[in-house]
Amino acid sequence: MWAIVSALIEGLVLGVIARLLIPGKQDVPLWLTMILGMIGAMIGNGVAHVFGVADTGGIDWWRHLFQLGAAIVVIATVAPLWAGRKQH
């Protein structure tokens, strides 16, 4: 149960930070921001494993940066698609 709650919180935090770093307005609801942040976290974890920095002795800064970078890419990709679906 705790894993689900922490994944939701991590997704929300990553999604909100990613939206703040992306220029312009992202017309994405909060629930979708959370889901996209969770997807970014999973992608970032995979990239961190590939580079061998997923688990370090201290704070996993590289893993967190990969997660944030992936969340930025995912939200920047999905936000225009989400906004465009309402206009058709």
Would you write up a description of this structure?
The chain has 88 residues and is mostly helical. It has three helices and no strands. It has helices at 2-21, 30-51, 61-87. α1 packs across α3 (61-87) and α2 runs antiparallel to α3. The termini are far apart. 30% of the residues are buried. The model has no long low-confidence stretch (mean pLDDT 90). This is GlsB/YeaQ/YmgE family stress response membrane protein.
**Number of DSSP strand runs:** 0
- What is the SS-derived class? mainly alpha
- What string gives the helices and strands in order? HHH
The number of helical segments is 3
Low-confidence stretches: none
Cα distance, first to last residue?
Answer: 39 Å
| Coarse morphology | globular
Sketch the major β-sheet.
none
**Helical proportion, percent range:** over 70%
Mean pLDDT: 90
Residue fraction in strands: under 5%
Estimated radius of gyration = 14 Å
Family: Belongs to the UPF0410 family.
Membrane topology: Multi-pass membrane protein
Pfam families: Transgly_assoc (PF04226)
Protein name: GlsB/YeaQ/YmgE family stress response membrane protein
